[in-house]
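$ run holo --ligand "4-nitrophenyl phosphate" --emit tokens
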Amino acid sequence: MIKVLFVCLGNICRSPMAEAYFRHLVEKEGLSDHFVIDSGGMGSWHTGKSPHQGTQAKLDEKQISYQGITARQVTAEDLDAFDYVIAMDDQNIADLSTIKKEAPTAAVAKLMDYLDSTSMKNVPDPYFTGDFDQTYALIEAGCQALLDEIKKANQLN
Ligand code: 4NP
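-- output --
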């Protein structure tokens, strides 16, 4: 199994959107049996909550399921249990390095690292920008690039 964890600050806007979109992509490509897909937040404020209304509205518009997705906090164990830990911004990366001092087993990267053709290095936080369309567009492109990379690395087709 290839285990992928998406990480953001609250686990209600960006990372659940990425989790839902990535799961949708993997299903579309007939690769569901190969993957475990999850998301988590650096903070615990929203533990147990469903995605933010703006994330739900965007996923509804695109007919992408977010059924069963609830917020949880990222733990040090996640950094060894997952193969890919995919953060939304530089602050997430900095925060991840504080919860586990030793080198993680997981490959830790930002979603935007997988895109060559964008000036955006971070996925803006729509909790503050209010722009869920921009966030969705970046997540859509980033997740496709991430899946392509994972397929190549794991010889999946
Ligand atoms: P997210 O957005 O990291 O994309 O889920 C946020 C959601 C909630 C908060 C911050 C960011 N908050 O401070 O409650």
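-- notes --
Residues 2-154 form a domain with the Rossmann fold fold (CATH 3.40.50.2300).
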